[in-house]
Amino acid sequence: MTDLLDDPTVDDFATTSKDRLADALRDRQDAQARGRFAWLRDLLRTPGLLIAAAWIAVVLLAAFAPSLLAPGDPLVGVPADKLQGPSSAHWFGTDQLGRDLYTRVVHGTHLTLEAALVAVGVGLLVGAVVGLLAGFVGGVFDDVVMRIVDVLLSIPALLLSLALITALGFGTVKVAVAVGLASVATVSRIMRSEVLRVRSSVYVEAAHAGGSRWWSVLFQHVLPNASGPVVVLAALQLGTAILAVSALSFLGFGAPPPAPEWGALVSGGRDYLRTSWWLTTLPGLTIALTVLAAGRISRAIDRQEGNVL
Amino acid sequence: MSVRRPSRRHAVLLAGIATTALLLAACSSGSDAASDGSSSSASQAADTPVDGGDLTFAIGNDPISLNPSGIGSGNDTLYVTRQIVDSLLWQDPADGSLKPWLATTWEANADATEFTFTLRDGVTFSDGTPFTADSVKKTFDDAVAAGAKSSAAPNFTGYVGTTAVGPLTVKVAFKAPNAAFPQATSAVALGIVADSTLAIPFDDRASGTGVVGTGPFTLDHYTKDTETVLKARPEYAWGPDGRTNTGNAHLDSVTFQVIPEAGVRTGALTSDQVNVIGGVQPTDIATLKDSGFDLVSRANPGITFGLTFNEAGALGSDPAVREAIALTVNPTEVRDTALNDGFAVAEGPLASTTPGVADVSKDIVTDPKKAASVLEKAGWAKGSDGIYAKDGKPLAPVLVWITNFSPNQTSVELIQQELKANGIDAQLWSGTVPDFQAKLKDGSFDLVWGNLSRADGDVLRTQYSTAATNFYKIADPDLETLLQKQLTIGDATERNAVLADAQERLVTQHHVVPVHELTTFLGLNSDVHDVQLGADSRLDQLTQAWIGS
Asked: Which residue in A298, A309, B275, B418 is deepest, having the highest Cβ count within 10 Å?
């Protein structure tokens, strides 16, 4: 029970003496330093994680400064150089219009990653609010909201995204919103269960007893302590979101051509599968590696969070 | 699983029986040959059609409707329904001329409003009922009554009625001239069906059950999204004279299998799982040729792939913009990049296989420098971003297209690139077929990329006349006169001269920018012979097709 009493966010806990508070703070700082050090050591000890982190770093660089990695124009090709295999001049080969595929993949990162981040943001925000309110308010409200969430969970996420995109229309942002809304159910479920766990802990009861208003309890005690697993989920959702966004853009719901979204690149190479393998394989590998890397990192954060909690 | 087990046992049993039967057949034929003392059958096999066998034909789309006059999924539907129904006339793929089929003779009155057909005697429907003038009247009346549900209805504009003048003579009358009608009768949509079929409500005929025609094949069964199996009719004997086999089909049956993905269809052919594939992708043509497969191809008649303007819009109504875009698009480069030599660069608005086509390629010029001077003369000036603008508005036409032909995306992206290099910032828009059609109807586009297959020059009128669908709002009275006039001329030579003037006007006034022809390719296993495409470049009836050993 002392663990539960030791709310890291509480700094005005009346029953703790000043000495004990100072001890607790020192202990926490030590634990944090050990944690940081362990995390770094883990990183060096697990080359898989290191590669994943390096890959995500490259992807982020490609998303925010594509011209550093590929200075060419992704939309202009030389028809005479069409469908050339990977070479030193064209690392990923050229497509049916003679455009450099590497340049297109790099410049497509921005669109794809932006969509994935918006998707995760939408899912996280809406899901967290729904889960937080359901868990904190409880009662009939909780019952009603959670039954709706149950129904949403029974629909496969991609199918739900497809239904939403049909209603919303085509475009990168709309795809992102559709993917994000499809993940609301999962996020809200986890948020609610965390809120329920935290809500019954002693420091929350103590805060209530101490006369704190409900919103202050919600935002100062419940939210910060319940958000850990949701943050992990967000990292994991990033990978899933990239996959879902690419799937929808593969199906032609994303940005109109010639925008080089990753899914659209895979789709564009489909007709040339027998003659030009690189058109589908290399963008496909890029998507796969990014999703795997995001998954690997989220697992590492998950472990780290598990240690702290 | 408990349900599947016995069926598998049955299959093994059946396979056993079949193998035994085949062995017996082989033994008996062997003994026949021995007793004849002849050994020439092997050398003859190469060019003498062999009777029997099941032809497996992979198509990309489910037929959706097996009602010949229903609206299905386009070509793939017509590949199947063509086998079930015959038409009054047959259009010869060799020269596009009309030949007798279910009608032995036909004539039009002077102003092309009345058409009289004399029908062939002795033709029967597959349910045994005779084919008469009444069958024709009922089929045509039914198509008109079905209205928009029927793909035949557009050919009956101004329909007055069909009269059975005698048991084998029928007269079709129209309020206004319809010189294109005899050609229209050769289409599957106007194929003649039996009275029993017409008794079924129009929508219910889509399943194919009860659809009875006079064709060389009858429906055995249809499984949606999987296969359509047709059986040959042994008593069929009224194929058009232009075919090498006017009698019943060499094949016993035909199975149309649905394989949606083009690459998978090609794979199914190369791995010997099917005999013939439709919708061969341009990128697979070379691969198939190199691996020893036969390709049957024919350029599609009708309007060639190209750009058409929305002349109700601010950009499309500006002749300078139209001319500049026409001068900038390079048809040869588009053909070479998106397609290959199997597809011809367009010589005009109509494809070379269309009856009434005229070669207006001298008026299709690519000259970006001239395009720049045309725009500058009309008051357009290049901004700092390299894009032309006038009165503060950039020259950024919205180009709409759909993926009904897979190289379309490459074509429009290349055209966008060509235009952009010359200061025209085309915006691409694509969507679902209903969205695309809605856009055409409400006019929220500047340019549209597309084609339209039909084996008659009248397609120009249905596409470009302001009195027809009128998506493009072409305000050109001279053109309109020509398009209406061709419909009133029964004489082919005179009519073609008018059609030629219309094609020239379409190109010289830059109403259209023709780019390339569409070619239909079928991929054939080398054992399969004499599969032919009709004058509409769709699969003709498979009576002469046969499978060698």
From this structure: B275
Give Cβ neighbours of residue A274 (< 8 Å, ≥ 6 apart): B263, B266, B283, B284, B287
* Nearest residue of A to residue B435, measured between CA atoms: A169
Range of the domain at A281: 46-308
Cα–Cα–Cα angle for B451, B331, B477, rounded to 5 degrees:
55
Neighbours of A76 (CB within 10 A): 15
B400: tokens are 């709409």
Nearby residues of B299 by Cβ (< 8 Å), 6 or more positions away: B343, B344, B351, B352, B353, B517, B518, B519, B520, B537
Task: Give B65-111 pLDDT, tens digit per residue.
Answer: 999 998 887 789 999 999 999 999 999 999 889 999 999 999 999 88
Contact A75 B403 (CB under 8 A): no
What pLDDT is stored for residue B42 in this prediction?
Answer: 39
Q: B414 and A273: CB-CB below 8 Å? A: no
The answer to whether the Cβ–Cβ distance between A79 and B336 falls below 8 Å is: yes
Q: Which amino acid is at B407?
A: P
Q: What are the chain B neighbours of A273 within 8 Å (beta carbons)?
A: 263
Gap from B469 CA to chain A (nearest CA, Å): 27
Contact A274 B409 (CB under 8 A): no
> Is A301 part of a structural domain of the chain?
yes
Fold (topology level) of B89-196: Dipeptide-binding Protein; domain 1 (3.90.76)
Distance from CA of A58 to the nearest CA of B (A): 29
Does the beta-carbon distance from B266 to A274 stay under 8 Å? yes
- Does the beta-carbon distance from B412 to A257 stay under 8 Å? yes
CATH number of the structural domain spanning residue A187: 1.10.3720.10
- What's the CATH fold of domain B1-60+216-299+519-549? D-Maltodextrin-Binding Protein; domain 2 (3.40.190)
Query: How many angstroms separate the CA of residue A253 from the nearest CA in chain B?
Result: 8
* Chain Cα centroid distance, residue B359: 22
